Amino acid sequence: MTTVATFRCGYAAIVGEPNVGKSTLLNAVLRQKLSIVARKPQTTRQRVLGILSTDEAQVIFLDTPGLISPKYLLQEEMLKHAEGALTDADVVVVLTDVSRSAELPAEVLQRISPLKARKPLILVLNKVDKVYKPTVLPMIDRFAKLELFQEIIPLSALKRDNLEAFVRSVEQALPVHPPLYPTDIISEQPERFFVAEFVREKIFEQFREEIPYSTAVDIREFREQKDKKKTFISADIIVERDSQKGILIGSGGESLKRVGSEARRDIERFLERAVYLELTVKVREHWRDDEHALKALGYRAE
Ligand code: GDP
Ligand code: MG
Predict the structure, then answer these.
(1) Where are the beta strands (DSSP E) in 179-239?
(2) 22 lines ligand 1 (CB under 6 A)
(3) Same domain membership, residue 165 and residue 17
(4) Ligand 1 neighbour 129 (Cβ under 6 A)
(5) 212 and 118 share one domain
(6) Distance 66 CA to ligand 2 centre (A)
(7) Which of 63, 157, 188, 196 could cross-link 25 (Cys pair, CB 3.0–4.6 Å)?
(8) pLDDT tens profile 169-204
């Protein structure tokens, strides 16, 4: 049974600075929106696991929050999630946005350099669609001089350019191991996690400045209704201050309605069924620095 003896399986952590396209890459590879994406940095707060199964391999991708210097407890927890993923991973995929910089920042280098002796590191140069093509090869040469990476792969997660080469490299870098998950599932987080994330994404899209960063979403109820065809979902949107609550609701409830209707569209597509979504805005002062609140919201890294 040669197929069994050569099957590869393991964890691949996707790490890098905020906003380089980590979540976009995960979604592109899995062909499903699993991890929320936004123009703003620091959207992803936890590890998001995405499982890609083929005949030859099973890659368990861990999307992570960006590697940053934390300023509040939530950011500390976010960083712990990213560092935990680095520890657990069999392969580390380091992502960089070539349209922004041709170098890796200290926050990233400092965390990945010590791993070189222990596990394969793959560098992905993302957003090549945004740069003049002839600049890519010299960039690859420059990164190769760091002598950190087993492979350097230029791609565009957004345009789905060169994704196959990326997946093949990750698969080849994994240990020979039977699959760890059933081959027909693509994630292990419960549906309610994704529902909360879709609501959070709309807040990231529709509000400015500190609002998205001060917001959490807590699913209170999630039930199938026997008589009705719709799934009933009730969620609290938690903010830090009264003034933020007012902005989120908007005059006549307009803003909150827009969040709800756009989130509902994504949730229905994800769950493949009709949904009734009820949103309530609540104030919980300083929740981002409150250990209990972070734990209740599922943001504590073990
Ligand atoms: P993360 O913070 O690293 O997870 O980054 P996201 O996946 O949330 O993406 C940040 C922004 O970069 C979003 O606006 C994406 O649409 C954009 N983006 C991601 N990948 C690409 C790419 O390959 N090309 C371009 N032009 N934009 C991209
Ligand atoms: Mg992300």
Answers:
(1) 216-224, 231-239
(2) yes
(3) yes
(4) yes
(5) no
(6) 7
(7) 157
(8) 999 999 999 998 888 888 877 888 899 999 999 999
